[in-house]
Write a structure and sequence with these properties.
The protein has one helix and twelve strands. It is mainly beta. The protein has a ten-stranded antiparallel barrel. It starts with a helix and ends with a strand.
């Protein structure tokens, strides 16, 4: 991922340098703040592993394919930008997506959740995600038509998943303790949540085709391993914003986000994988 970010930053620098050579000057807004809110329709791919202490952990379970949680859902996102000075800017963005689903089936191989194996039964599932991003941007190259920023900040991703199970379940206290032939009419509830503050670094590039039409590209990410905890994020955004007036704009674009957190500790013994991508629309107000 680090190599990808370096290539992205190099590409943005090349585009920016080229545009400086042939771009024409346009009037630059003196507004310091931009507020935006929009709708987002992502396709989602997520996995969870809720591990126990007695059995060897298995690979994460697909939330959409196995547990039948919807893989697409509309959501609202938004944020605010502050242009502190010509070269310094600050941005806050928030996104939230809550999903739930259920399945009644026989599972082959049996599903492992904490210290239990589920051979068959009913599983009701929820998977909630909230992502907050605070980012500082420094304009490395800037003209009245374009802006190339280096970015650094922090993502705070709150991931929470839970399963309510009724069916044939083996545990260390049942006979048998492992499949096949798990006892019937067993009820289990398992949940796990993690709030992962992960730093990020990257770049953004804005280019004004005209006074009314602006392109915005962003690539940020990071990976870290501290003790028993590993985490990574990657975010790619592409938008076109049309400004019918000096203070109002309408945007359309594409969002991609990937977050992975896994650990074997008392706070989190398992793994969260969350990935989404899809189109987004937004409205903007400058003041």
């Amino acid at each position: 991922m680090k190599a990808f970010l370096l290539r992205s930053a190099f590409l943005l620098s090349f585009i920016a340098t080229s545009s400086l050579a042939w771009g024409q000057d346009l009037a630059r807004s003196d507004d310091k703040f931009r507020v935006y809110i929009g709708g987002f329709w992502p396709t989602i791919n997520s996995k969870i592993a809720i591990n126990g202490a007695d059995f060897t952990p298995r690979p994460p379970i697909s939330v959409e394919d196995v547990l039948r949680v919807p893989d697409s859902k509309g959501a609202v996102w938004g944020g605010i930008d502050w242009k502190i000075s010509k070269r310094n800017a600050l941005e806050f963005e928030y996104f939230s997506l809550n999903r739930s689903g259920g399945i009644s089936d026989t599972f082959s191989p049996p599903l492992e959740v904490r210290d239990g194996f589920i051979e068959s039964g009913d599983i009701n599932t929820f998977y909630d995600t909230s992502v907050m991003r605070l980012t500082y941007g420094y304009s490395l190259l800037s003209s009245e038509r374009m802006d190339l920023q280096l970015k650094a900040g922090i993502h705070v991703a709150k991931l929470e998943a839970g399963l309510q199970i009724l069916g044939e379940i083996c545990t260390p206290n049942t006979v048998p303790s492992a499949p096949p032939g798990c006892p019937t009419a067993q009820t289990e509830t398992a949940s796990e949540d993690v709030t992962a503050p992960l730093p990020h670094f990257g770049a953004s590039y804005s280019y004004a085709f005209s006074e009314a039409l602006v392109m915005e590209l962003t690539a940020i990410g990071f990976a870290i391993e501290i003790g028993s905890i590993e985490g990574s994020i990657l975010e790619l955004d592409a938008d076109i914003v049309w400004k019918p007036s000096e203070q109002f704009g309408i945007g359309a674009g594409w969002r991609y986000f990937n977050s992975n957190v896994k650990a074997s500790s008392s706070e989190l013994n398992g793994e969260f994988d969350f990935e989404y991508s899809g189109p987004a629309v937004s409205i903007h107000y400058w003041f």
